[in-house]
From TrEMBL:
UniProt source species: Sulfurifustis variabilis
Protein name in UniProt: Uncharacterized protein
Domain of life: Bacteria
Amino acid sequence: MADARPSVLSKLPGISFATLAATGETIAICRGEPNYYRVESTRTADELNALYGVSQAQARAMLAGVMQGWDAPQVDPARYEEDAGKATEARSRPA
């Protein structure tokens, strides 16, 4: 059986940004690397991701990769795109 990891990693950007919940620090995550890097910026992680063209699904998958390992199922951004679609659908329905 072929290793699915390279195909999943190819769906991810080279870099994304996140905010550490415990400290509020902005971090940079490089695809496939086991560590993250602190970022000193006046911009938020969401602003930096938008600047780099990183979707929310990709950013969540990248955070999962650095925290849980790059072979974890949560590294596939498709898992989060479905969540985003459901959230968009729920918001668009009349109350």
